[in-house]
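Technical annex B. To support the medicinal chemistry partners, we prepared a structural model of the target in complex with s-citryldethia Coenzyme A, based solely on the information shown next.
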Amino acid sequence: MPSPNTICLSDPQQTLCSLPIHTGSMGPEVIDVQTLYKETGKFTYDPGFNSTASCRSQITFIDGEEGVLLYRGYPIEQLAETSHFLEVCYLLLHGDLPTPEAQKAFEHDITMHTMVHDQLTNFFKGFRRDAHPMAIMVGVVGALSAFYHEALDIRSKADREMAAIRLIAKVPTIAAMCHKYSTGMPFMYPQNQLGYAENFLRMMHATPCDHYAANPVLVQALDRILILHADHEQNASTSTVRVAGSSGANPYACVAAGIACLWGAAHGGANESVLHMLRTIGDSSRIPEFLAKAKDKNDPFRLMGFGHRVYKNFDPRAKLMRKTCHEVLDALDLHDSALFKLAIELEQIALEDEYFNSRKLYPNVDFYSGIVLHALGIPTNMFTALFAMGRTVGWIAHWDEMISDPEHRIARPRQLYTGPGRRNVPGFQPS
Ligand code: SDX
């Protein structure tokens, strides 16, 4: 009789092995297959990791069927309404909401690290002015480790905390520098008296020649957008950061790897693709034509901003993003925005369509974010850089959790080999 919390794997003739089952605090149980190969000589096979848990984590929980997203147990809807981004950063990094004193100290630490080493500005001169901001971000963020050789001991909690502060503080500065470089305008230094989101908008839009004051509605909208993007359990870019970190790579290199993965159109690059898609559709009369393309298996076109590996219900972030959209467009008197109206119509028609309904394809976080960011005056090619700004805290929180996990080892998946059997090079004569 198998012991409790185990599952027996058998073929028609015999029981191959019994594997332990682990139960988490919420969500599906897992079958621990670590001994499977040793006991059966067989691997598991799960190319998209659809049914694979890569680690234990206490940071973020998603219930895809119910459309639930919790950061350290707190619902995203409550955090988006009551918290602000640096408070959520503290929560994700340390596991609990901060006391007022801890929050004040954390915000001071972030503020004191928003500037970058002045020699870092030289990196930009090597890029073409029309370089995509994500190409620059991958390079410049990855190069940050070159300025902190004395604080890269990943076994040191203090060094890990310092790297987290530096990355959360400097990624917005570097992102704004990417935009300024593309326009030929001078870089703007961060201002210590400004909050995180307001500082970024000023570095993006201000010039040395004029006073700049960000619209408070836009500041609040950007702060909420960063909260919505902060973390999302083991998504592709966070898994990339974890895999890179498993080899002992420094946190700046790991976050640069995460930025590179996020850039893909199937992931964080989707927000930029949504806006291009809406502009290509142009008018609601063409929606049926593009929905047909999205359903056509011979057409590579997909409805960008729709679908999700985990959510088979509404992405709770998409609802909050749509609400933020309304607020920003109203505040800017842009509620007749053709793009927003087209997005609303596209969403309604797609949600009534059997193809999308049967596959449980709903709008995801990227569907509305592009419209809000466009209304905030953010250029389309900067959308994914803003996603990276929000997600940096999630990446570094997971990296720190992995390094601190006694179970962690270098990530080294196996494969199902389908190539040629052993053969000799023509003419080879064994010596
Ligand atoms: C993010 O993982 C995360 O948590 C990511 C993220 C985060 O916060 O980190 O939430 C951020 O990346 C959101 C996703 C942004 N990407 C897009 O909006 C790009 C468009 N979406 C698709 O490419 C797709 O939905 C994915 C990549 C998001 C999910 O791909 P899956 O899970 O591999 O799903 P699939 O490709 O197997 O699709 C299942 C079916 C297929 O049809 P059938 O083979 O069953 O006939 O649904 C179809 C797909 O063709 N399908 C779509 C579609 N998405 C899925 N068809 C048309 N348009 C789409 N958008």
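Notes passed to the chemistry partners:
The CA atoms of residues 87 and 326 lie 25 Å apart.
The pocket of s-citryldethia Coenzyme A is lined by residues 48, 232, 235, 266-268, 270, 294, 302-310, 359, 361, 364-366 (CB under 6 Å).
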